[in-house]
Amino acid sequence: MSTGQHEIGADTADPAPTADPADGAVYQVGEVAERVRLSHRTVRYYDDQGLLSAARSAGNYRLYSRSDIERMLMIRRMKPLGFSLEEMRHVLGVLDRVDRESAQAPELELELRRAIDDVRERRDKLAEQMAGADEFLAALRARLP
DNA sequence: GTTCTCACA
DNA sequence: TGTGAGTA
Q1: Strand C neighbours among A 70-99, CB < 7 A
Q2: What's the confidence (pLDDT) of residue A24?
Q3: Contact, A63 vs A8, CB < 8 A?
Q4: What per-residue confidence (pLDDT) applies to A13?
Q5: What pLDDT, on the 0 to 100 scale, is given for residue A22?
Q6: Which residues of chain A, if any, have pLDDT below 70?
Q7: Which of A24, A33, A139, A144 has CB 3.0 to 4.6 Å from A10, enough for a Cys bridge?
Q8: Length A74 CA → C7 C1' (Å)
Q9: What distance in Å separates the CA atoms of residue A62 and residue A40, rounded to the nearest whole number?
Q10: Which of A31, A28, A25, A29 is nearest to A13 (CA)?
Q11: A45 touches strand B (CB under 7 A)
Q12: Which domain of life is it from (predicted)?
C-alpha cells in the first residue's frame, strides 16, 4: 500500500476513507486518478484549470496531498450537478475561506448559503429528471406482454 | 511512470 | 469540457 514517492516521499498512508488528520502522504497524478476514479488526463486538466494546486517534485511531477484528493472528490460530486469549472472554482474558493476563517463573517455566511441554495436547486432538478425517468420506465414496462 | 503541446469533438 | 497521440 505504498503511496506516492518521488522526492518528498512520505509513505504513511492508509487509504481508509475515515478521517485521518493531515499526514504527509503524497500522491502522483495516476494514483490520485485511480483513487477518485477519474482519468489522469482529467485530473491534470482540473489542475491546469486551477481547481487544484499540486506541489511539484524536483522532477516537476505533480504531488498531491490527502486534502487534494478530498477536493477532487468534491469536484466529482459537483460534476453531475452540472457545475461548470468556473462555478466549481467559485464554490471551492468559498469553502476554502470558510475552512480557514469559519463562516462567522456575514459576507462569507451569505456566500455559503448561496452555494447551499444553488446545490439544492440543482438537486431538485435532478430529482425531477429521475421522476420523469421513472414514469418513462413505467410506460415502457406497461407495453410488455 | 510523468511532463508538455496540438488536434479534435 | 475533456481526450488521444506524440514527445522528451
Answers
A1: 79, 84-86
A2: 86
A3: yes
A4: 35
A5: 60
A6: 1-22
A7: A24
A8: 33
A9: 11
A10: A25
A11: no
A12: Bacteria
